[in-house]
Amino acid sequence: MIEVVADQTPPVLHGPSEKEKKYDRQLRLWAASGQRALEEAHILLLNSGSGTVGTETLKNLVLPGIGKFTIADDATVTEADLGVNFFLDEGCLNKSRSESCVKLLQELNPDVQGDWFPRTKDEALEQLLDGSRKFTLILHTFPIEPKTLVLAQKYSEKYKTPLISIHSAGFYSYFRVHLPETFPIVDTHPDSTATQDLRLLTPWPELSEFATQITKDIAEQSTHDHGHIPYLAILLHFLSEWKDSHDGALPSTYKDKKAFRDLVAANTRTDTPEGGEENFEEAVAAVLKAISPLTLSSSVKEVFDYEPTEVEAASSFWVIADAIRQFHAKHGALPLPGSVPDMKAQSTVYVKLQNIYKAKARKDVAEVLETVRAHPSGKEVESTEVEIFCKNAAFIKLIRDTKSAPVDLQELARKEFENDKNTEVTMMPLSLLPIYLSLNATSHVPLGTSSDIVATISKDIPDAESNSRLLRVAEEVARASGGELHNISSLTGGMVAQEVIKIITKQYIPIDNTCIFDGVASRTQILRI
User: Fold this and answer.
1) What pLDDT, on the 0 to 100 scale, is given for residue 289?
2) Torsion angle of alpha carbons 286, 287, 291, 293, nearest 10°?
3) Can you give the pLDDT at residue 141?
4) In the chain, what percentage of residues exceed pLDDT 90?
5) What is the pLDDT of residues 325-351, one digit of tens each?
6) Which of 405, 505, 498, 493 is nearest to 188 (CA)?
7) Is the pLDDT of residue 2 over 50?
C-alpha cells in the first residue's frame, strides 16, 4: 500500500514583490539592473521660462521610479502658469514655483524623493552646483540666463555629467543631448533576429561532433527522426558534403549559396503526411544568413580603434573592451553569445544543442575574464559585467560628443536646405533645421521680432534671409513669444524622459544628438548639431 502523509506541507511559492508588481512592464524593458540605476539616480532640473516642458519631463521620470529629483527655479507662480502647467493649482499662486511643482509631482509616486531650490531668498545657484551635491544628469529649459547655462555646462564638464537642453515654444520644440566626450553602451537591445551567431562556417569540435552524430545515415533514418533533425545540424551536414565536392571551399558567392540552398531543399522528404519537412524548410530559409562570414560592425570597429585616455582606460568598459579586442585578434571572432533560435527538433536534442552553445559561450567568457584579471585595473571588474559584455559584444556602441567630433553648422544647413530644393523629386520631408535655428536664436531672449531672430541666425548662416521657409518659421517662433502649449510640451517631455532613461540605465541607444519636433506637421527629425 501507498502511505499518504496528510500533514505534509507543500513548498512555499514566492510570488512577485510589491515593487515587481508596481514596475512589472518597465522591468521587462530594462530589467532589475536598469531599475536599480533609476532608483539610484538624482536628476537636477534648472527650470525657466514657462516651466512646463521641464515638469512634464520630470513627470515621466517620477512615474517609473527615479530615485530623487531637484527643481531649481526662483520664479513665483502666476495666473499664466496655471494655464499651461498641470502641476500647479490656484492654491499655488504667489508661492515658489519649484516647491509647488515638487509637492504635486511627488503625489504621482511616493517612493520618489523631491527637493527644490532655492529654499531661502539668499541662496545662489552657485551653491547648488558647487560639487557638494552629486547629480546623475542635469536638465535645463530655455530661455535661460547665460550665466546659469555656463554654470550647468561647467558642472557637466567637470563631473562628466550628461546635460540635456530643452526648448519648447508654440508649436515647435527641440531637445539636445550633451554627453561626456565618450559615452559607451553595452546593452543596446538589438533586434533578436540580429543577435543570432551560430558559427556554422567555423564550428568548434563539440558542435561538429553533435551534427555528425545526429545526421549519421541521414538517408536511412525514419520519417520521424529525419523530420526532427535541428536545422543547424542539417546545414552543417550539407556544408561538409559541399566542401568535399568543392575542394574544401565553402559557398561564398550568391550563386554558390543559391546552389547550396537547392542542395538542401532537394534532400527534403515529400512522402510525409504533411507533404514536406518543417526542419528542412527552416534550413533552406536560413541559408543566406546562417552561412555568411561574420564581420565586425562599424560601431565595434570604432570601439576597437578608439584610444582611451589614461582615466578612461581604467574604467571597466575599456578594460573589458581591450580584453575582447585581444580575443578577436586571437580567434578571428567575438565571444559566442550562446543563444540558439527556436527550431523543429525533439526536446532532448534541442536542450543538448543549447547546452553545447552555452558551454562554448561560458568558455569564451572565462577566457575574456582571465585577460581582464591580468589588466592592472581589472581586479575589481565584476564577472557578471564581463558576461553581459561578451553576450552583447557584436552590438556595443560608442557615442562621441560634438567636442571630440565637431559639426560644421553652416555646412549642415547648406546640405539640409539643398535637400529641401529637391523634395518634389525625392519625395523626402522638409528639413526641420529652421525650427532649431529659430528656437536657438531665442535661447536667452524669448521676446523678439522675426527680423531679430533671422538676424541672429545670420551670424552663423550668412544666407539665412534668402530661405523663405526659415522666415516663416521665425515668424511663428516670434508669435509664440516664448509661450508654451501644454500638449506640445507634454509630448516633448515624454521624448526627453525616454532619452534620460536610456542614459541612466545605459541601455538602448540615445539619440545623437538633437531631436526637433514640428507640432504643426506632427513630425520629428534627429540631427547631429
Assistant:
1) 87
2) -80
3) 96
4) 71
5) 999 999 999 999 999 999 999 999 999
6) 505
7) no
3-state secondary structure of 30: helix
- Sole residue written with cell 547648406: 414
Number of Cβ within 10 Å of residue 248's Cβ equals 8
Q: Note the pTM of the prediction, 2 decimals.
A: 0.86
Residue 219, all three cell numbers: 538517408
Type and span of the H or E element at 118: none
| CA angle (190 as vertex; 189, 195 as ends), nearest 5 | 120
Cell numbers linked to 206 = 563539440
The CA distance from 230 to 236, in Å, is 10
pLDDT at 490 over 60: yes
φ and ψ at residue 367, rounded to 5 degrees: -70, -45
List the end-to-end C-alpha distance of the chain, in Å, as a whole number. Answer: 81
Please say whether the beta carbons of 78 and 93 come within 8 A. yes
From the CA atom positions of the chain, what is the Rg in Å? 29
Distance, in Å, from the CA atom of 430 to the CA atom of 421, rounded to the nearest integer, reads: 9
What are the two backbone dihedrals, phi and then psi, of residue 15, each rounded to the nearest 5 degrees? -85, 180
Beta-strand relationship, 182-185 and 397-400:
antiparallel
Q: Is the peptide bond before 118 cis (omega within 30 degrees of 0)?
A: yes
- Give the whole-angstrom CA distance, residue 81 versus residue 61: 21
The whole-number average pLDDT for the span 380-391 is 92
Q: For the residues 237-249, what does the mean pLDDT come to?
A: 92
Query: What digits encode the pLDDT tens for the residues 458-469?
Result: 998 988 888 999
Q: Residue 425 corresponds to which cell in the numbers above?
A: 523629386
Contact (Cβ atoms closer than 8 angstroms) between residue 229 and residue 268: no
The tally of CA atoms less than 13 A away on the side-chain side of residue 406 is: 5
Q: Which residues touch 301 (CB under 8 Å, ≥6 apart)?
A: none
- Residue 259's H or E segment, with its range, is helix 254-266
Among candidates 335, 330, 320, which has minimal Cα distance to 378? Answer: 320
Q: How far apart (Å, rounded) are the C-alpha atoms in residues 11 and 34?
A: 31
How are strands ordered across the β-sheet holding 68-72? 113-117, 68-72, 42-46, 137-141, 163-169, 172-178, 514-518, 523-527
> Residue 179 in contact with residue 510, Cβ under 8 Å?
yes
CA pair distance 142, 166, nearest whole angstrom = 6
Report the distance separating Cα 83 and Cα 96, nearest Å: 17
Asked if 57 and 499 touch (Cβ cutoff 8 Å), the reply is: no
Q: Is residue 511 classed as helix, strand or coil in its secondary structure? A: coil
CA distance linking residue 132 with residue 130, whole number of Å: 6
CA distance 235 to 221: 17
Q: Got the DSSP string for 314-346?
A: TSHHHHHHHHHHHHHHHHSSPPP-------SS-
- Tell me phi and psi for residue 165, to 5 degrees: -95, 135
All residues at 6 or more sequence positions from 521 whose CB lies less than 8 Å from its CB, including other chains: 429
- Is residue 32 pLDDT above 70, yes or no? yes
